[in-house]
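We treat protein structure as text, and this decision shapes the records that our systems exchange. Such a record has a labelled line for the sequence and another for the backbone structure tokens. The record that follows is passed on verbatim for readers who wish to inspect the format:
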Amino acid sequence: MSTTFAHPPHPSELFLKKPTANLQPSTSQERNPHDVPIFDSKSLTEPVAPVLYLPPLLSSLPEKIDFQPEETQVDAEFPPLVTETRLPNIDPASLSLHKALHRFRPITPEYASTPYAGAFNWGELRLPEEEEREWYCVVFRSRRKAGSDGGSLYEADKLAHEEAIRNGGLIMYWYGIPHPQTGMNLATCIWQSRKHATAANSRPHHIRAMRLAAESYEVYDLERYRLSKRKGEAQVTIEPYTSGDVGW
């Protein structure tokens, strides 16, 4: 079972709508980073401790695909989030990746400063051995300017995210919260191909979001990676993108 989430950029807004009677704040020494975090207007910008449990935001599949996540793919206690906007299409290997990403998660609270290949549970993702494909990953490492107003940027990011899904190619969007000491954060997108990601860069909502980001962040670094699945193997591998097409 997945939870519908219609308003990026942060899944924490979903938790604001849920009862929190059993969720008690803790100090940075006591808090287990795997626990469901407590989100309020302050914790998003001034967290008391690094947060490890944050669900992936998966793009909803095309209506023609009838997919019900199995228990082996979804953690019943911490399900992923899915968008209301649907992808127009998805190829079979990317559908397998989409299913595997239901369990995508960071494995260290220091994800904002950890190399991409070591920040997430890539080694736990399993795809059918007979499939072979590559996907394109983009990573954003950032730190907000002190006192910057995120309202307009969040709305622009929401529209850019929906725009990317409607036009195809965006499989997953994941983002953390600022590190309580350094203020650094990390977000990442996984695309069916580099061509899809490049096309999204020229869309109007994406252009506006990037302009607002330039005004709101003092650090905003981009990294690009190639996610590969080789035939005869079940696991995926991550390596820096250097050149050439990726995916379709």
User: Anything to note?
Assistant: Residues 156 and 208 are 7 Å apart (CA to CA). Confidence is low (pLDDT under 50) at residues 1-9, 14-28. Residues 151-166 form the longest helix (16 residues). Strands lie at 3-4, 57-60, 81-86, 133-144, 170-175, 184-191, 217-229, 236-240.
